[in-house]
Amino acid sequence: MKKFLVLSAALALLASCGKGDKGELVGVKGKKWHSEKPYGMTLIPGGAFIMGKSDDDLANIQDAPTKTVTVRSFYMDETEITNSEYRQFVEWVKDSTIRTRLAILAEEVGQKPADGARSGKGGGSIGDYGFADTDPEKMTAYDKYMYENYYSVGTDKDPYANRKLNKKIKLITETSKYPDEHYVEVMDSMYLPESESFNGLKTIDVSKLKFKYNQVDLNKAVKKKGRKNFYEDAPPIEIYPDTTVWIKDFAYSYNEPMHNDYFWHQAYGEYPVVGVSWKQAKAFCAWRTMYKNSYVKKQKGRDQVNSFRLPTEAEWEYAARGGIESGTYPWGGPYAKNDRGCFLANFKPNRGDYAADGALYTVEARSYEPNDFNLYNMAGNVSEWTESSYDPGAYEFVSTMNPNVPDAKNQRKVVRGGSWKDVAFFLQVSTRDFEYADSARSYIGFRTVQDYMGTDATGTRPK
Length: 463
Known about the structure:
Elements: H1 2-17, E1 41-44, E2 47-51, E3 67-71, E4 74-77, H2 83-108, H3 141-151, H4 181-189, E5 210-211, H5 218-221, E6 237-238, H6 245-248, H7 256-261, H8 278-296, E7 308-309, H9 313-321, E8 383-389, H10 394-397, E9 412-416, E10 433-436, E11 444-445, E12 449-451
Parallel strand pairs: 8-11
Antiparallel strand pairs: 1-4, 2-3, 4-12, 5-6, 7-12, 8-9, 9-10
Helix pairs in contact: 2-4
């Protein structure tokens, strides 16, 4: 009798799970999904193309023999990441760093948020900026469990890991309105001493602006059994661009104005960011993904977006060609001028004559005509980091489907497209070049991509 009751209960449970399907195999119905084009990006429909140099290898580098490959569909930034866009990343890290330091000191001195602090109205002490999870009694059951078992104990390396910051209350920037001496102490720690500040101005200590994120090497992870150590413990990365590149890259040259103004001044807001290493570009991608998904998480019924990342070398070349088979440049070629004698990109057309194309250094990210995929400056302006590691013989052994060289130990990373200080050879869509991952240059920037969900958008499939 007891077995019969158990069996009846099990059958009843199965019947309730399949309510409305009439006992048929109909699959699990999920939320309705629609592809969303990310802001500032364009869809690159996947397809096959001939990667490599189809014309003579005049420099005799012999690292890009032609090879037919296929890449999947993806979204790509229409322009290089601009100073304004990268400053959004810097400001977010700055804000989070200050709030974290305030919250830690508030906890150390035993101060808690005043009643109005949780709604954005401070009570006049550093306690207003304390961690948002300082009162377990006001938490949901889930948050309370996570706090007691994870957040309150932290990790071996960071006792405050996963603690929630109170971002409802605004930071106070006017020194005359600092609420107490503890707040002053934190803010003072974020700035350089007056003796080290530029022109006596209050200057943020950019070495304090660090971003930490989880990195995973999937090629390494698939070889492991289970998910232990799935994420690699990467150190925090200083994310502020190296503005000194404008001086270091050019000996016996006066480029101090670019060093002083290029990144932070609004006059250069729409110009491509430079002085960013490959590692910093990767950190930007991780932040952009996290920033978007933190918004999506608050929207009911929405799935999280795919990660933003750097393009592979093959993706970059495919996108740069704009659907033109065997073209020399993004506009086809073989010349760098149009029929009216105007230059089609920002580069160094003549020896020493950087301004012959109308620009001495970089130009705004939406300058010149875009290619047929609506991508701007895929040749010239700034060279661009890719995800791929550089190997001179890569084309001989990479796959013909989504080729890539994801060698984490190889610090030589492929850069493409040529820059404002390069001759026309480096502007060719098939020209390969590299720089070391921890290097930053005044002529290297980047743009990001995001994988397209589905297979409908395929550019070269039969009609």
